[in-house]
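Have a think about this chain, C-alpha cells included, and walk me through the fold.
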Amino acid sequence: MPRARERVCRIRADRDGPLLIEGPVEITGPDGEPVVSRRFVVAVCTCRRSRTYPWCDTSHRRRGKPADDAGPAGRETHE
C-alpha cells in the first residue's frame, strides 16, 4: 500500500516575535501536557512572557528598547 503524501510543516521565525506555524498543531508544554490548536496559522511564544503560553499574546512587544536605541548617556529612553 503506498504511503500517503507527507505534509511539510512550515515554520516562520521572526527575530523579535513568535514562531508562526502552519496548523493545526499539538505542542507538549513544560508540564508534559499536550495543548492543541486547530487554527490554520499558530503563533507560538518564544519570549515566555505570554499569559497564554505556549501561544503568543504579543507580550514580546512590551519589552524595552535595545541598547543601540538608547537615549543620551547610553540610557534607555522611556516614552
Q: What stands out?
A: Confidence is low (pLDDT under 50) at residues 68-79. Residues 43 and 69 are 27 Å apart (CA to CA).
